[in-house]
Design a protein that fits this description.
This protein has 228 residues and is an alpha/beta fold. The chain has a single domain, classed as 3-Layer(aba) Sandwich (Rossmann fold). The chain contains 8 helices and 5 strands; from the N terminus they run E-H-E-H-E-H-H-E-H-H-E-H-H. The radius of gyration is 17 Å and the shape is globular. 43% of the residues are buried.
């Protein structure tokens, strides 16, 4: 089996991406980050998802992006709640973490080079998203070019790195439907930016609203408990 590094946040997009990579015959090495985000709930979800979907191994790297700040996920900035779909789709929200996907993909690339893997999977999505600039196809294409210019394996021709983004042009409903078909247990995943002290999802942040919309449009029940 060919090896692949799969970025795994613990959300439904990354869980579906891991399931897709497995279905394509890859031996998946899941990579998550404790980067100073508001809560560890998503890392707990990532551990369960990695085990459930048969990842060969699951590595959690620790980074301190909170010392940089600049995001509602890594600084004392309020998380937006109750926004309309129109508002969510307009501009770049304060939940954008500066350069986060570039930082994550750089670490994934380094691990892939060590593992001898040429394939990296990333659950980027441009539809039903919050307008993050590092989830666009042109960004992925640029990073793939960089990956092959900036590594020993790429320069020596030992590897040709490929960044796979199988969900990039899927709606959230299509992702939910695909994940279910692949056997993803969505009850293990987590999407909320600001869960309640009792462990329930807020139901009102952008991520919760997009997730709820996806399940509703797919005609499926979301197994997560919500406050609202």
């Amino acid at each position: 089996m060919k090896k692949a590094v799969v970025l795994l946040s613990g959300g439904l997009d990354s869980a579906t991406t891991l399931a897709l990579a497995r279905s394509q015959g890859f031996a998946c090495h899941a990579l998550s980050f404790a980067y100073g985000q508001r809560h560890a709930r998503e890392l707990e979800a990532a551990k369960k998802v990695a085990a459930s979907l048969g990842a060969v191994e699951h590595l959690i790297l620790t980074l301190d992006l909170r010392s940089i700040g600049g995001s509602a996920l890594t600084a004392d900035i309020p998380v937006p709640k109750g926004r309309s779909q129109e508002e969510i789709g307009r501009g770049i929200p304060v939940t954008y973490v500066p350069a986060r996907n570039t930082i994550f993909l750089a670490h994934a690339l380094g691990w892939a080079e060590v593992l001898g893997a040429e394939d990296l999977f990333f659950g980027a999505n441009v539809y039903d998203s919050s307008g993050y600039p590092d989830c666009r196809p042109e960004y992925v294409e640029a990073f793939e070019k960089l990956a092959n210019l900036a590594t020993k394996a790429g320069v020596e021709g030992k590897s040709r790195f490929k960044i796979h983004t199988p969900l990039i042009r899927m709606t959230k409903a299509e992702i939910v439907t695909q994940g279910r078909a692949l056997g993803v247990d969505f009850g293990l995943t987590w999407s909320c930016y600001e869960p309640s002290p009792d462990g329930r999802a807020c139901g009102r942040c952008d991520s919760c609203l997009l997730r709820k919309k996806g399940f509703a449009e797919a005609g499926l029940r979301d197994p997560l408990p919500y406050i609202a």
